[in-house]
Amino acid sequence: MILLWDLIIKNGRVLTMDSPWEQNKSLLIKDGIIVDIVDNDLAQRLDANEIIDASGLVVMPGLIDCHTHLGEYATEGVHKVRGKSQKMAATSNFLDCLKSGVTAIGDHHLGHSVLSTPVGELKEAARNTVLTIKFATGTCCVGTEPLAYTSSLRPGNILTYDDLDDGHFAKLAAESEFPGENIFITATVANLPSNLVPNGGKRILESDDIFRIVNIFHALGKKIGAHIEGTENIQLFIEAGGDVIHHAHGATIDQFEEMARKNIYMVATPHGGTSRAPNTPQEIYSALNAGVTTAIATDSYLPVHSEALGMDDLEVVGPKDFLKICKPTFEYLKQQGMNEIDCLKMITTNAAKIIGLEAEIGSLKTLKKADIILCKGLPVFDFTDTESIVMVIKNGLIEISKDFQ
Ligand SMILES: [Zn+2]
User: Fold this and answer.
1) Ligand 1 centroid distance, CA of 34 (Å)
2) Ligand 1 centroid to residue 73 C-alpha, Å
3) Ligand 1 centroid vs 69 CA: distance in angstroms?
4) Residue 345's CATH number
5) What is the pLDDT of residue 308?
6) What separation in Å is there between the alpha carbon of 311 and the centre of ligand 1?
């Protein structure tokens, strides 16, 4: 019997992320899985339902954006929807991801104060899209006066801190699918003009609270992530045993070393996200150098901070700007002697670790999912426009295909 492969991608410059460039390899795909990576000579003799000649193209894992707000905040902020069309707007955002070469995201449901779609309905909408989506549930605190709390458990309402008891955090932990912004240790500016958020950046949880909430998540077998800015505030979460620090604006080199020792991950947002100056390329270099598992994420859709590098022409960043966000950092890292593959791990392998899917995605490897992009060159280094991503394959199926031959 002759085995018929579903898909063979041959003759490309293959970037598995686990090893240096493979110039002479072909990927054999069956049932949505990478079954083998073989020499082109061998692939030449095999048959498949579809054979892609990727000559001249880079073949690499689909990109992963491990911190987005596409199901919730972007639907109101970008699409201006309020009612049942929220799920349509979310689906439209998810398609934008796929068209931008992003095959998996870590999205957030924080109980937007205006939109009342329950997280279960967004999870259902997400299941019907061609994208791997993990949802973090959480409580958010906006730095208005007085402070405004929201929670994934009661979307469409403004709450107070007294509404958030231990039982509440236990339910949130049970619903959460990855350590995203499960809690806010500092109040967010939430993309609002600064006069409306005078408490933006203010610490809203003290050490005892943070320990208690971290322990609730851990007791339920869940990792916990937090939105944090400011050195002292970051330290509280480190000491409480937190798992993932989102933004980490203001982290010091000593803290990066402690995070590396304690296996605490960082999600950098070099274009903003808090009331402070965003992560600089130098800070991200320090984190990587210390050994912190670090990812860069879009926090889509997010207005660009005035001190963000290389984003002058943009007011707000979304999925299609992912590569552009990375450019100043990647260029700096390369100048410091880091190789391109290690840079790209921040938007593939490391991001997969943050959303807890490193066994399935984030690199090209036998028995991993066939989530693959074909590009005219190396993302970020050779291009930042998503038009140069000419094919997107998700679970072994060609989902986006542009003319490239
Ligand atoms: Zn965020």
Assistant:
1) 32
2) 9
3) 6
4) 3.20.20.140
5) 83
6) 18
Domain span at 386: 4-61+362-401
Distance 115 CA to ligand 1 centre (A): 17
Residues near ion ligand 1 (Cβ under 5 Å): 299
What's the Cα-to-Cα distance from 226 to each of 203, 211, 241, 302, rounded to whole Å? 12, 12, 11, 17
User: 38 and 95 share a domain?
Assistant: no
Report how far ligand 1's centroid is from the alpha carbon of 226 (Å): 10
Based on the fold, state whether residues 388 and 378 are members of the same structural domain.
yes
Tell me, yes or no, whether 17 and 84 share the same domain. Answer: no
Q: Residues 171, 34: one domain?
A: no
Residues 328-371: tens digit of each pLDDT: 999 999 999 999 999 999 999 999 999 999 999 999 999 999 99
Please report, for the domain that includes residue 36, its CATH number. 2.30.40.10
Total number of domains in the chain: 2
Rounded average pLDDT over 46-56: 96
88 lies in the same domain as 190: yes
Residues 257 and 224 in one domain: yes
Residues 53 and 75 in one domain: no
Asked if pLDDT for residue 272 goes beyond 90, the answer is no
Distance 15 CA to ligand 1 centre (A): 30
Q: How far is the CA of 274 from the centre of ligand 1 (A)?
A: 9
6: pLDDT strictly greater than 80: yes
User: What is each CA distance from 200 to 74, 250, 313, in whole angstroms?
Assistant: 20, 15, 25
Based on the domain organization, do 216 and 151 belong to the same domain?
yes
Q: Please state, in angstroms and rounded to a whole number, the distance separating the CA atoms of residues 88 and 109.
A: 16
